[in-house]
Amino acid sequence: MYDVIIVGAGVIGATIARNLSRYSLRTLIIEKNSDVGDETSCANSAIVHAGYDPHPGTLKAELNYPGHLMFSQLCKELDIELKRIGSLTISTSEEESAKLRELYDYGIQNGCEVEIIGQQRLREMEPFVTKKAVEALWAPTAGIINPFELVVALMENAMDNGVELRLEEKITGIAKETGGFMVTTDKGEYEARVVINCAGVASGEINNMVSDKKETIRPRKGEYYVLDHFPAPYVTHTLFSVPSSKGKGVLVSPTTHGNYLIGPSSEFTDSAEDKGTDAPTLKNIVEQAYRLVDEIPMQYVIREFSGLRAYHDSGDFVINSPVPGFINMLGIQSPGLASSPAIGEKAVKMVGELLPLQEKAGWNPRRRPLYRVNTLPVEKRQALIATNPDFGQMVCRCEQVTKGEVVDCIRRNCGARSIKGVKKRVRPGFGKCQGGFCEPLIMRILADELGRDENRINYSNRGSFILMEKTKGE
Amino acid sequence: MKYFDLVIIGAGAAGLAAAVEAHDNGIRSILLLEKDKYLGGILLQCIHNGFGLQEFKEELSGPEYAQRFVDQIASRGIETRVNSMVVDITRDLQVHYSSLEEGYVVVQAKAIICATGCSERTRGSIATPGTRPSGVLTAGLAQRYMNIDGYMVGRRIFILGSGDIGLIMARRLTLEGAKVLGVAEIMPTTSGLTRNIVQCLNDYGIPLYLHHTVKEIIGRDRVEKVVICPVDDNLQFIEGREMTFDVDTVLLSVGLLPNNPLLEKIGIALHPRSKGPLVDTNLQTSIPGIFACGNGLFVHDLVDKVSSEGRRAGRNAAAYIKGTMEAATEEFKVPAVGGEGHTLPEEGKFICIVCPRGCHLSVDKDFKVCGNSCPRGEAYALNEVKNPTRTITSTVAIDGCELCRLPVMTSSPIPKGMIFSVMEEIGKVRAKVPVHINDVIIPNVLGTGSDIIATRNILK
């Protein structure tokens, strides 16, 4: 019997798992994909929103601002890349300026640091902003984060502190029993006193397995362009359009690794597996982005991707307990990532009303830092290589990753098991060649570390194999 | 800190030739750095023949071509380092490299030659629509997986782009038993060499769809289908004329781009068309003492031209070090390199590959040749009709070393009709180290009078 079963290892599930790992609880987290953070948490804008956007009084407003502040400590403890570069919401018309003032008021009510700045200061801060800009809402505490690292780090630390993770298991049923629940997956049955539904786009289905109050979560797709990092100066803040009923609109933003994101679109889709991109949507994104900047170096485009937001008809986060002992995290779309640390705290409080929370002796809030070899000064790099020559062997030219780092990310708790798993953790494949040079090397390392043939290594989930049988003569 | 007169980055066709030439121009302190385990660069995975006609007046496979230069490096005693990737160069000519054997090393040079090659354009760079399953890969990556690592990358394949690597891979996959369902080219003419259209597609009945491109890739975990659609003169889809193919793999052969992250980082401007660094007629960048050559400068059509340009860089760098280099007067003009740009011949006709003109030939039942512009075309046509022959390249398994595939070829052309039976014979044998280029692996294969011979030295 587990004390807690968490359904879904995205940023919300992983945060809750890590928060619960502080207490003497037996916690299991079940994820249907082959890796954690493989749905919404790996395909979003990677922004820590400052909290001025949600309507005061909503759960989003309550959780965003405090949540976004908590990242400073969290990222230090777990060695996650975070840069508080600040965000600028750009107005290009009187009409938009009226909306900007409304956002400013929301910000004040939500307790945020916000300021409306005029054209001149805007242009000094952000020379690449469109000439059409008349003013902007400046939110200095907004940040950018590495969302891949975030979920992996949370999960790794949770596992370091005793949480169990089961990957590639799909929930098929949840039944209320005396004193708890029977959770059935395609691989087994597990009993738990408390079940927390963090299944994102699938959280409606999970709720409906156990609750009579049926819920619908609609996937809303966002498509993006990714630009390579390049040496010339470009946008240094997150630039937002003035939001509309469809969401925050298209943004242009650097990422923690110096790439740039342009997007997202925002369209409802019928399928929870619809991760495709299409030409008309991408074209529209670029047109929208030209409301923020006058120049987009499209020659640096290296990738397109899409992610699904879990939209609840209330438009707000829905955190409730429709059945005693069953906790729902529904509709956690933007600013879900920014709110996640606060959502995690709220979840612990809710669990505390159901189970005794006794702090564990020896709980370690830190995870062993990553090596980040390409950021080390020469002497430190040489010293590291002296301990293990694998840190001297480069396997990724674009992102400058060493074999030692790849091996390390496989051997940790919540380690990489696929090409994409390595990519999310230490970046080979994120660059201009998109894996064209490094993929065979990463595959070799995975095969050696996992004791499998190379043609048993997947790109991501089961079935996403890259190589087939050996050529003749084998 | 170590000191060298000349540091050359990249030991592919350009870097190898540059090193030899600099040495022959009197430079003795040379360091040639290679990120991979072996010298030779991408040539090592290009096991097909057709290299070296200008350089050596004979037709070689990629590994053989590389070996000719590696031998020249060895006989001159030029210092080389493999498993050594350069991570930074500085404006004052320091080279930082990281290596399995030596760790992180900083070298001070008097001149640097960047011969860092090119990379393939990817799905992301052309924004191919659809889902993101595995099984979408660039042709060069597929070539490496097949020819170096010895794995099939798919069983039913569609190829986007008529670039040479894609065409070569269409043949290679077919020879190994896969089914290539077609090649789509968005432009109205082909971009690869005519010889490759003929010998890689036409020989195997692989359809070429000109003025078509991929409209959608479908598949959840692995590619399941690809949708192809014709485009109009503005390259927009002509709706309603889509074709869907059941495939597990889509190969991309949609162009190459020079790769110069090291030069870009220190502020060298790029040429707007070639995307390589701006250089003068000495092949020197805006930073004195830093030179560029090969596919890192612009993407060449023939490796022979890369070698010759590498020599030019090596010669100029040597003169620069000795203080005898004449000042350049103007900017280097990037030559226009494009495909031979052929359209498809009508039913019953075929393309002559004797010269780049690419006449569309036909032969009637009395062996009268039409459409040729010269007697060589007539001879080619008659041979193609009466007794067509082909040189076959492939790999065999090899034991006793870390490499698992030995590239091989037929020592002389074999009858076209025997290609697949010869492939079967090649699939039956295993080689053992040490193997030298030209070692006979199968003598007189199937009585053709042609031997299957090794095309790479694998000594341990």
CATH topology of the largest domain in chain B: FAD/NAD(P)-binding domain
CATH H-tier superfamily of the largest domain in chain B: FAD/NAD(P)-binding domain
Number of helices, counting only DSSP H or I runs of 4 residues or more of chain B: 10
The CATH C-level class name of one domain in chain A: Mainly Alpha
> Residue-averaged pLDDT of chain B, rounded?
94
- CATH architectural grouping of one domain in chain A: Orthogonal Bundle
> What is the straight-line distance between the termini of chain A?
48 Å
Largest β sheet strand count, sense and barrel closure of chain A: 9 strands, mixed
Task: Give the overall shape of chain B, derived from the CA principal axes.
Answer: globular
- Average pLDDT, all residues of chain A: 96
What is the CA–CA distance across the termini of chain B? Answer: 33 Å
Describe the structure.
The complex is a heterodimer of chains A (474) and B (460). Chain A has 474 residues and is α+β, with helices and mostly antiparallel strands. Chain A has helices at residues 11-20, 59-78, 94-109, 119-125, 147-160, 203-210, 279-289, 336-352, 378-387, 403-411, 419-426, 439-450, and strands spanning 2-7, 27-30, 47-48, 82-83, 87-91, 115-118, 135-139, 143-145, 164-166, 171-177, 180-185, 189-197, 217-227, 238-241, 251-254, 260-263, 267-268, 301-312, 318-323, 326-330, 394-396, 401-402. Chain A has a domain at 373-456: Orthogonal Bundle (Arc Repressor Mutant, subunit A). In chain A, helix 1 packs parallel to helix 5, helix 1 (11-20) packs parallel to helix 8 and helix 10 (403-411) crosses helix 12 (439-450). Chain B has four domains: 2-119 and 257-322, FAD/NAD(P)-binding domain; 123-254, FAD/NAD(P)-binding domain (3-Layer(bba) Sandwich), CATH 3.50.50; 350-386, no CATH class; 390-454, Roll (CPE0013-like fold). Chain B has helices at residues 13-24, 62-76, 123-126, 139-147, 164-175, 194-201, 261-265, 303-322, 375-386, 419-428, and strands spanning 2-9, 30-33, 49-51, 60-61, 79-81, 84-89, 94-99, 103-114, 118-120, 136-138, 156-160, 179-185, 208-210, 212-218, 225-230, 243-246, 249-252, 256-258, 290-292, 350-351, 360-363, 369-370, 389-390, 393-399, 405-410, 414-415, 430-432, 440-442, 452-454. In chain B, strands 1, 2, 5, 6, 7, 8 and 19 form a seven-stranded mixed sheet that branches. In chain B, helix 1 (13-24) packs parallel to helix 2 (62-76), helix 1 (13-24) runs parallel beside helix 8 (303-322) and helix 5 runs parallel beside helix 6. The longest helix of chain B has 20 residues, at 303-322. The two termini of chain B are 33 Å apart. At the A-B interface, strand 18 and helix 9 of A face strand 7, strand 8, helix 3, helix 4 and helix 7 of B.
